[in-house]
Amino acid sequence: MSTVKNRQIVLDTETTGMNMVGVHYEGHRIIEIGAVEVINRRLTGNNFHVYVKPDRLVDPEAFGVHGISDEFLNDKPSFSDIAAEFLNYIKGAELIIHNAPFDIGFMDYEFDKLKQGIGRTQDFCAITDSLVMARKQFPGKRNSLDALCGRFDIDNTKRTLHGALLDAEILADVYLSMTGGQTALSFSAEAEQAANTGTLAQHKTVHTAGELRVITANDIEQAEHDAYLDRIEKKSGHCLWRV
């Protein structure tokens, strides 16, 4: 169990399917877990990824989503084989999950089937639902992972099928963009030493490649802008943007 502060795990799962009526996870199993570690808003590269052999077949509808076949899973470990390592990885962290009730439901179902008294995920992890965050930030808009990638200009061209690790990596970028966009803050060795000794630390500035893209307004947009400024000036008698 990690004791690092501000440790977040961006997590996604793939499953054998789901129930459209009743409890969505009952009778189904997790077949893939992908998780990305973020500490102090920095991707660490300490990721967790595993395929899991279920005790049942993958539904055709689910296979169409993630492309994980029964044959592929035949030689993979069972959930009981990887449970201890997975628990050690996530315990004490804040889990960032898109549509968290889906994945957490499956995780709690798997933990309960072990009959080891593990309890519910919320007992040993904080849980943040990035879908709920997105709906608050962008009410009335589509807030799927693909839609958010388009909104934040995040490359998701490799996402031809759902995959737990790839989706977790993409969600990490989306989450960091939704909560401020800063993903590249780092410290030099001297700064880290200074931070540990309580002295002043210096930040390393990271510049992104490429030049700043400038998008100019077209004639229609400029006309609408001018009309809007006219309304402001008419209502208040003064328009700051025309000074």
SSE map:
Layout lengths: L6 E9 L14 E10 L2 E2 L4 E4 L8 H7 L3 H4 L5 H12 L3 E4 L2 H14 L12 E4 H8 L7 H7 L12 H15 L7 E2 L1 H9 L5 E2 L14 H18 L7
Parallel strand pairs: 1-5, 5-6
Antiparallel strand pairs: 1-2, 2-3, 2-4, 7-8
Account of the protein in words:
With 243 residues, the protein is an alpha/beta fold. Helix content is 39%, strand content 15%. The protein has 9 helices and 8 strands. Strands 1, 2, 3, 4, 5 and 6 form a 6-stranded mixed sheet that branches. The chain has a two-stranded antiparallel ribbon with strand order 7-8. Helix 4 links the parallel strand 5 (94-97) and strand 6. It is elongated. The chain starts with 6 loop residues before the first strand and ends in a 7-residue tail after the last helix.
Which overall shape is indicated by the principal axes computed on the Cα atoms? elongated
The value of Rg in angstroms is: 23 Å
For the report, how would you describe the main beta sheet? 6 strands, mixed
**Number of DSSP strand runs:** 8
